[in-house]
Amino acid sequence: MSNPVYGKQAHTSTRDEKRSPLFWVLIVGIMLFFVWSPFQAALFNGQMLDFEKPIYWALTITSILLILVILSYYKKFKLEEQRDWLAVLVILLPVTYALSLISAASHYLAMNMVIVQCVYASMFITSLYLLQDRLGNKMIQIIIMTVAYLIVGFGFINWFGQWILAGKLVDWFSSAVYQNRYTSAVMTDSNGLRLTSVFQYANTYAAFLMAFLFASIFSLMKSKTWFGRLTHGFMLVPILVSLFLTLSRGGLVMLPVVFVILLLFFKSARQLLWIIYCVVAGIVSLAVLSPITNMGLELNQTYNGATAAKGWGLLIAAAAISGVISWLIQQYVAPKLENGMQGWASRKLSNLWLPVGSVVIVGVVAFLLIGTSLRNVLPENIRVRVEGINFQQHSVLERFQFYEDASKLIADYPIIGAGGGGWATLYEKYQDYPYTSRQAHNFFMQYLVEVGILGFIIFMAFILFVFYKYTRGYIQQNAEERDSYFLYFILTLSILLHSILDFNLSYVFMGMLVFVGLGGMAAAMDSRPVKRLTLNPGAFRPLYSGVIGIVAIVLVFTGLRFIQSSNAATEARQVARTSQSFDQIQVAVNEDLSIRPTHPDSLLLLSSLYQAAYKQSQNEQFYTADEELLQRGLEAEPYNKSMYSYLMSHYQLKNGNEKAFEILQSKISNYKWDISWYSNLIQQAFTLGIQAREQGDIAKQQQYFEAGLNAYQQVLDGIAHINDLPDSIILTRQFNLTPEIALNTGKIQFMSNKFAEAVVILQPLLNEDLSNATNKEIARYYVAATQKQGQVDHIWYDKLIQADANEKQQIDDLVALKLQ
Length: 820
Prior knowledge:
Elements: H1 21-36, H2 49-72, H3 82-89, H4 92-99, H5 107-130, H6 134-159, H7 163-170, E1 177-178, E2 181-182, E3 186-189, E4 192-195, H8 202-222, H9 226-245, H10 249-263, H11 268-299, H12 305-340, H13 342-345, H14 353-371, H15 380-387, H16 394-412, H17 422-430, H18 443-476, H19 479-498, H20 508-523, H21 537-578, H22 582-595, H23 600-617, H24 620-636, H25 641-652, H26 657-666, H27 675-694, H28 698-723, H29 739-751, H30 755-762, H31 773-788, H32 794-803, H33 807-816
Antiparallel strand pairs: 1-2, 3-4
Helix pairs in contact: 1-2, 1-6, 2-5, 2-21, 4-5, 4-18, 5-20, 6-7, 6-9, 8-9, 8-10, 8-19, 9-11, 9-12, 10-14, 10-19, 11-12, 11-14, 16-17, 16-18, 18-19, 19-20, 21-22, 22-23, 23-24, 23-25, 24-25, 25-26, 26-27, 27-28, 27-29, 28-29, 29-30, 29-31, 30-31, 31-32, 31-33
Keywords: Ligase, Membrane, Transmembrane, Transmembrane helix
GO molecular function, one term: ligase activity
Membrane topology: Multi-pass membrane protein
């Protein structure tokens, strides 16, 4: 039986080994990067101009860090073990995203995801080598935990209404601060105020808090110093209170799941301590949760310094109590438990009893908080959220629908996927009912959409292999070796499990935590020799270093160029708001388009310039340039609704209504729940039908009218489908029969000699407010249709005449029309 080599490389550096200056440069660089990145809205990949520049900076910075790793750890590059191959295989992750560019639904969004994956791969390689160094591992863990605690503190500054202070603390380096306020650090939705801290999204903050709640408990248990134990015990209450203040049901659901899974990795004494610390923190947090919640709700409406000070005092006092109790337990109780339970721990399956018991306890607590009056200990806003935890509530049913719709999308892009941003670009085409969600709310499903089965298999094989080898090695090692890297396992597992329910990894900062965690797990895994695939280090080192070094340098310059492009696009948008100078705006736009020729924001801005210039000058050069620009853009962004809208406006500059109508009709399947698309199509069908009638082309008139009526029937079918949905489904987009749709459809029926049908369509939309032009026209065609049938509605006829005497002549003109 071969000897395990788990953790071997993690101990290659000793306490006395001298480290090069590059090591310290790397540590300082990572520290500054981890302090900077969360305050850029956690590097949210928001798929729009406002969010992109910090991600390009992240690419530049991580590529520089990767270069430092190559220079610092050149001698460690070899392919002797499984761990070494991971540094090669991780490159396949951005490669699969690059491959998906072939079938990408949006080249712009797909390229951004290639960049994000390059950031992840760089962080993994950096972590893999740096965390094999004892001191490097220790310092990275300190940096991660410190940054996490800063984020929690930042959240409370905003919760207690001190958002000006919060903004001033970070506005000198954060892109998320607007008018001295960090945007949406406390967000408002239908549930009221929700704490989000740096994330601007409560559910992802809940995932972050869940991960670091367990990370704090583990750090408390392994800490050897009184200061460390006190600090981690102190932070349990702020983290747990923050978790409640997010009002995240997904966070509360996943918390016990991760809690029980992590218990399985401890011996009985630590399992009991794990539970005790959770109970202590939970009791203390619940004791102060209601007043802190109410103070925050009050302070975010009207700030009061005394109330804020009281809130801080209460929070700090509760945290101090938790910290002191936790320190006392770890100092005096923990050693006795570990010694006293050694015999129990040696029994077979002894570590399963507490996890199984915890499942029962969690179930009982959940029942008490949801199904009994014990829930009254919770603040009202939190109680309402907790009571809503069930499989029939809106957010659960909506997520299931997302997954079903994503499955239909995957079926059309099965092998290499629809590219980065594929869901955001295509979901309107596949959605079963009208909702708005540019995220699939499931990281794994969204990953499968973007890179297809091939990319998904590579990704899952990569992370499952790391988890398997880490767990295998964890079982074989002693307590000290286990403790050295278990923090990375906690963070990675927690975030990935919660990402089954939400889009946490759309925040690149969260993704970096996962890949740093995977790197830490790989640094400590049970790494076996790979003899058949081993290359001579003398040949591999220069090859690997050269390839990765060149790629890193290319990425640095790519990041800088994209930053330059983003700056130009932002400047162009700002200039367009304040200046009417064609040349001034065009210079900024062209600077962006010279780097990214199909960047949607700048392309659409330039198109609007060309169209405005053509309207003023009738210069054909502007018209031609605009058409070429939009056609080029649609080649890269074939599902971009705004580009199609601009192209339709372009055609209409020369009365090209027929071409515009072709777009409306041919692309309706891409936006089948966009009621404005149907409205435009039906309106254009009527207009073009009337033009054809005036030209004597009755066949063409009928063709347009039939297209309009078909669209109207699709609207009715859609409304019927919506009416069959469960009552708990809440539509986030309206899809109903608008007055404009009814009017134009009624007019089509009227002009088709189908007066009874026109009456049926128009009558339900009659409105007493006849000062409104649409309402007046509906009533006019309705009255005319009744007259055509010989059954004039005198009530509405009199109302119309009373509202506008000219209506009599208009009604007479309609009645006098000779229709075929």
